């Protein structure tokens, strides 16, 4: 057991007048202001009955009141259950009940929508400010083994599971990232990823540990981000593929300032053509691999390798470890990771925990391989693997190829049941304005792929089914077949 | 209990071709070479009988073979007892016997001098290379609770005590420093402090955790350091006061490159005049406070405060904590620190351990105060405090004043027994070439100090007694009285 001083209090002591939060409208808040507001908020929550161990739902877009609410919970030892605002009422209630949420705090703008959820006490952020403070002892230290947050996995398969994050998971995640990306005195990290996802939340934690401002966006907007990089001294931006695509379009041939040092790209394998385009536009993209269970990044390219190893997610962050349990002799296998940023398990779900964790190693369910220098390449979800006549087919290989066609906007490949081959690959395609026929696409695939990998059928669709985390839900495509 | 991958193996995996060690003669070694050589060395040591838990003395000046020997021990789980080469045979034997050293490894250049020490097995570094490797399992992980090194405190009072450093102490020390100073991709840290002191050793550990080259000097030489800053891309240098004095003289009005970002100044309070001089010469001095028991730095100025808070040692590194147990209403008191870089105790010395550590707080024996913004100012050793007629007198205040006189090269103030006042301050002075009389000095002191603080007598001496760590031994001065 290791305790550390409360991270926000500590940072407010170290750098009281340093900016902690910056919004595009010019609003800023220093670390001492953030500490004071979070402590006041904690005392008001205590007055309402929130205490050590209380599970408090948080439902909000990114803005400073959400940050204050999250830090307030840590002063009480309460646990934040971070809820995805894109979920339906049914989905939210599932998580609320599963997590035993007894208080729900919501953004003022969302409060109307959530008043009928299955929680006894539902309050808008600003409403709390009208309550009395209770004189309670706030935490001056954090125990790294204590639970801080619960975030449900997006569940592209099966029911969502509540991933438990201890203070230690978050702490080590921030340290691992620092040892890879470095910490510069002028760093400012832009958070457009929702704070209810671990990728966004991890930026907040880094902020209080590094003493670094967070530039906080309430929603993704490529123009605002472009301007923030050009004019507001943002040095690091975390994005997912679709965001990078839109940013590259806006950036065009603009040369970003030297101080902009990292576009951290997560959320799954990215098409190589996109990465090449970013490289030729001098956008310093660093691919990363991680998931809710690893408290965000666990494998990331380093500054020195980012340009040389396009397509790779890099190496396991210090002090994490990585191995690929090979399935076949091409080196592809399931990715297993270990390290102090890996969750201790799922809330109230011993079966899932035991299935995923073996002697501290997490079986990620993702497939990948290591090159001769030990760099990881992620090829997709294990559940998405297509086995056709005994041959393994990785949808990402076919998807990457077809994405090279300018007519194709998006593509998802799944395995269709087949009497003769067990499964055959088929492709769901969203076209751009340009037209292309099924036979043209198949003919292109035949030129570049082994016969068994060529999609048997091309289904043209208007859009691909995505979940609340914006990930493609392949099992919904299978239902269409 | 937390384990991490072996830090050198991990860094060699992350950055195999990055430079790990650089010597002024142009010799370099990469992290993969350092790992390979250290592992080979470990297997040879294993062949000689060194195993997990063996206490191995290391006696060497700074050079790459010493680094290899230290890392080799970590692959076996053996414990390094780092011995000061300036000690006498009697002093070395005291530490060797106290620490239960069963093997002694010494630099080739020193082997003749140490052949008669009280250790059964004494070998020169290069001799080990002639032995056979034993096929043993080397550590792939490090347990942060395991002991890695033992370093004896320099003992300006009483017998030296063996300070135990776990892997965790070293790890957290490196992390704490990174969170304060930042980590830049181009960092290169110059180690002229001996690696047998924790200030030097800590640079080695940072090197393998950050993936940063160490520029290694076998002895202090201001011309070599000046050149390394100007021409070899050194970004950080750790020094003590006397080194900084000599460096400033050599540097003159030279403007150092922008990339040289930190002169980390430890080893006790420095005269303010020296710090002002460094500031006016644009040398980025960061004062730091630490000791063997805190695995080097525990309180350090930050880049943003270094120029504004001259004379302060800064704030407690993340995640360390600091408090001053006030002795009198001027705010001065004993400095207490807590954090995962603080030793768990002294080897085989329960009495000293219990005296120093209370509920994880280390009573440092140093006196200091916090200003209104929480910055620490160190005023001296508690044992050096002079109490005269009930008034507390801090020798450093008088020493700092007298150092302003250009005729005075060095000065040490101690308390002389006095029938009327219990103690009165007296000063031991080393003059420069310029002459100055006792009455001139006393007259200067009278102008600036309260009457009870004015030294009663000035003793002119050729030099001040220093121990093997180059610290002034005040109790030897007392014996002269």
TrEMBL record, chains A, B:
Keywords: ATP-binding, Ligase, Menaquinone biosynthesis, Nucleotide-binding. It comes from the Bacteria. It catalyses: 2-succinylbenzoate + ATP + CoA = 2-succinylbenzoyl-CoA + AMP + diphosphate. PROSITE patterns: AMP_BINDING (PS00455). Belongs to the ATP-dependent AMP-binding enzyme family. MenE subfamily. One of its GO terms (molecular function) is o-succinylbenzoate-CoA ligase activity. Pathway: Quinol/quinone metabolism; menaquinone biosynthesis; Quinol/quinone metabolism; 1,4-dihydroxy-2-naphthoate biosynthesis; 1,4-dihydroxy-2-naphthoate from chorismate: step 5/7. Residues 9-347 form the AMP-dependent synthetase/ligase domain. Pfam families: AMP-binding, AMP-binding_C. It comes from Virgibacillus tibetensis. The lineage of its organism: Bacteria, Bacillati, Bacillota, Bacilli, Bacillales. NCBIfam families: menE, PRK03640.1. Converts 2-succinylbenzoate (OSB) to 2-succinylbenzoyl-CoA (OSB-CoA). This is 2-succinylbenzoate--CoA ligase. Its EC number is 6.2.1.26. Residues 397-471 form the AMP-binding enzyme C-terminal domain.
